[in-house]
Amino acid sequence: MPLPAEQREQRQQAILSILRRRQVSRQEELVALLRRKGFEVTQSSVSRDLRQLGIAKLGEEYRPVSDEAPPEANRDLELVAEFVLAVHTAGPNVTVVKTVEGAAGKVGLSVDRAGWAEVVGTIAGDDTIFVATRSAADQRRLVARLKTYFGS
Q1: Which of 28, 33, 45, 115 is buried most, with the most CB atoms less than 10 Å from its CB?
Q2: Coil, strand or helix: which one is 41?
Q3: CB burial class (10 A; 0-12, 13-18, 19+) of residue 132?
Q4: Of 1 and 122, the one with more pLDDT
Q5: Is pLDDT at 150 greater than 60 in this prediction?
């Protein structure tokens, strides 16, 4: 059975996936969609997840605020995705991205160029990238984004 933090991360990934695929205008609708996917959720847990992910109701639907990287950054991230082996957290403000040997610099540059507000900076070695964020909430948004592109 996954730990609570893993469950939250899986649930938040599912929320992002749902919101990218369809328009959702009410939290109750999102609760129902998550329950169909097997998540045990309440409206308050979904509300908390939305807040942590930086998702707001824009017009008539919930959408991640500044969700999209510039088109060229999306392309860069897609091109380097095959070199990423894993994404892990290391404390509340540092995310570690493991890559194949020699790829960390290129992957780190792609993350920098994405222009995501939650990224303060990156440090890349040969096969490891440290990505700094300002807060734990920013880190959760970052991990969700990275997993969208890199899967790990």
Answers
A1: 33
A2: coil
A3: middle
A4: 122
A5: yes
CB atoms within 10 A of CB 65: 11
* Cα end-to-end distance, the chain, whole Å: 19
Amino acid code (one letter) for 109: L
Task: Quick: pLDDT tens for 84-98.
Answer: 999 999 988 999 999
Residue 130 has pLDDT above 60, yes or no: yes
Q: Residue 116, Cβ neighbours under 10 Å: how many?
A: 20
The secondary structure of residue 65, as a DSSP letter, is T
Instruction: Tell me how far apart the alpha carbons of residues 47 and 72 are, in angstroms, rounded to a whole number.
Output: 32
Please give the model's pTM, rounded to 2 decimal places.
0.58
In single-letter form, the type of residue at position 5 comes to A
Q: What is the CA radius of gyration of the chain?
A: 16
